[in-house]
Amino acid sequence: MDRKPIFDTVRRLLKRGFSRREVAALDAAIDAAQRGAAVSSLDSVTGVTDPRETRAIGTHGIALIQQFEGLARLRPDGSVEAYPDPGTGGEPWTIGWGATGRGIGPGTVWSRSEADARLAADLVRYAADVSRAIGDAPTSQAQFDALVSFHYNTGAIARATLTRKHLAGDFAGAEAEFARWNRAGGRVLAGLTRRRAAEAALYREGSSA
């Protein structure tokens, strides 16, 4: 596989170059994708010692995202095709592990390797967003994982009341906020309700650690 397009895509998403640690982590994720294995951990992407640095999502967060995103529209040959948003019946079209954006629409088909590589790239980007939003606020790994899953699905980490309550140290209040984000297209969706409950449970686990 030519890895340059993947690295170029992640570089554009991050709007910067890579450290040696990040190159090694992305290489490992691509290797796993080529073996047909699920992306299991990006813990080594940034190796945080200072909470103000960009953090990496852990294995529990990745498992939660994969559980709820799934690989919908899996074809007999192992590839996946795009599907419409369940709330709108159309945009945004989604493919693989919940990927959306330019170039994804009716008729889009990806290999499993492409889906896994996109997940690895997106997790780096969404973890960076969450790191910027929470700054140096005390945050356990489980809390961080729950926040990344929430942001991966909603894109709302920068504006959510949930984030403000977390920054204030009101962990119980932040946990309660997850349940409010269970609508799409103006309708309550059972899948979103289950996902928010799972994220809240993971966040609560980290709050009591």
Automatic annotation (TrEMBL):
Write out the similarity annotation.
Answer: Belongs to the glycosyl hydrolase 24 family.
Name of the protein = Lysozyme
Cite a single GO BP annotation.
defense response to bacterium
Protein EC: 3.2.1.17
> Which reaction(s) are listed as its catalytic activity?
Hydrolysis of (1->4)-beta-linkages between N-acetylmuramic acid and N-acetyl-D-glucosamine residues in a peptidoglycan and between N-acetyl-D-glucosamine residues in chitodextrins
| Keywords associated with the record | Antimicrobial, Bacteriolytic enzyme, Glycosidase, Host cytoplasm, Hydrolase
In terms of Gene3D superfamilies, this protein maps to: 1.10.530.40
InterPro entries the record matches: Bacteriophage_GH24, Endolysin_autolysin, Endolysin_T4_type, Glyco_hydro_24, Lysozyme-like_dom_sf, Lysozyme_dom_sf
Q: What is the lineage of its organism?
A: Bacteria, Pseudomonadati, Pseudomonadota, Alphaproteobacteria, Sphingomonadales
GO MF: lysozyme activity
Pfam families per the UniProt record, alphabetical? Phage_lysozyme
Q: Does the keyword Hydrolase apply?
A: yes
